[in-house]
Automatic annotation (TrEMBL):
Keyword annotations: Phosphoprotein
Residues bearing PTM 4-aspartylphosphate: D59
Protein name: diguanylate cyclase
Record-linked PROSITE patterns: GGDEF, RESPONSE_REGULATORY
């Protein structure tokens, strides 16, 4: 009766009474679900620790750990629903079971049609909840993600910079900011077309991700302008990172057709965050450093220290 491998959408029956446990096991199989069984709450927790199970059917009255205690433990430690079974019709017990996190409450003796209907409802509600969670996560991601490059967008840039600035101040860490802009991008679009321009921006985004650390956050700030937040990075280190990024993008060869490729360069501005300064001041400084790079001919890195 003990299952070695339990797939999802399966039911774990927990009852110290062997005949009752075996009867429920057969009913769950007849209802069309995978099943496993445990003679105690402790053994049920061991099974749950090894295998994902979506639904636990547990009796209330068991020695050592009872069904209500098991319900609380399952809800705290695992992603599983619990249906509590009892032979006593008691509103207080029902309220306590629901209060501990149970999804439903069934009176013994259990009839197959009712058991099947309850299991179906639990699984249906789980699926709806999972779909809703996935949708909310997708909407959240879309709200902070640039649709073309799949980088974080400008709105999320300010949130992330604020978070990193607060962390740097709290723990006395260094933090740097890097802005870069694609040189002569209007001319690139006029020459090769906007579709090629979009592909160029995507290639630049990927090159930037490959060049920098996992801890660094990359954003499409707007148009052909990008920003990078560099935690635990001094201004000198950020200049080195900027030079590496400038070189990597300079080496890109962007396919225009089967016979033709194009190249792009970027102007990069770097600054270091000064503890206590307003976030917008740091942003303006990085933007000015980038402007200085562009004004000096592009394809270079300029640095403005925080005291300027």
């Amino acid at each position: 009766m003990e299952n070695k491998s339990i797939p999802l959408e399966s039911v774990l029956i927990v009852d110290d009474d062997k005949p009752a446990r075996e009867a429920l096991y057969e009913m769950v199989l007849t209802a069309g679900y995978k099943a496993a069984a445990a003679p105690s709450a402790e053994s049920a927790l061991e099974i749950l620790a090894r295998h994902p199970v979506e639904l636990v059917l547990t009796d209330i009255h068991m020695p050592d750990m009872n069904g209500l205690e098991l319900t609380a433990a399952v809800k705290e430690r695992f992603d599983a629903d619990v249906v509590v079974l009892t032979g006593f019709a008691d509103s207080h017990t029902y309220e306590e079971a629901i209060g501990r996190g149970a999804s439903d409450f069934l009176l013994k003796p259990v009839r197959l049609p009712e058991l099947k209907a309850r299991i179906q409802r639990v699984f249906r509600e789980r699926r709806l909840w999972k779909e809703r969670e996935a949708l909310m996560e997708q909407l959240k991601k879309l709200s902070i993600t640039d649709g073309l490059t799949n980088l974080y967008n400008r709105r999320h840039f300010y949130r992330q910079l604020s978070t990193e600035a607060n962390r740097a101040e709290r723990y006395g860490r260094v933090l740097s900011l890097l802005f870069f802009d694609v040189d002569s991008f209007k001319k690139f679009n006029d020459t090769y077309g906007h579709l090629a321009g979009d592909e160029a921006l995507k290639s630049i985004a990927r090159a930037t991700e490959n060049c920098l650390r996992v801890a660094d956050s990359i954003f499409r700030y707007g148009g052909e302008e990008f920003a990078v937040v560099l935690p635990e990075t001094s201004g000198e280190q950020a200049i080195i990172a900027g030079q590496r990024l400038r070189n990597d993008i300079d080496q890109l060869r962007l396919p225009i057709s089967e016979e033709e490729t194009a190249k792009v360069t970027v102007s990069i501005g770097v600054t270091e965050f000064s503890p206590g300064e307003e976030m917008e001041r740091c942003v303006k400084r990085a933007d000015m450093a980038m402007y200085n790079s562009k004004r000096s001919g592009g394809n270079q890195v300029q640095f403005i220290p925080p005291d300027e």
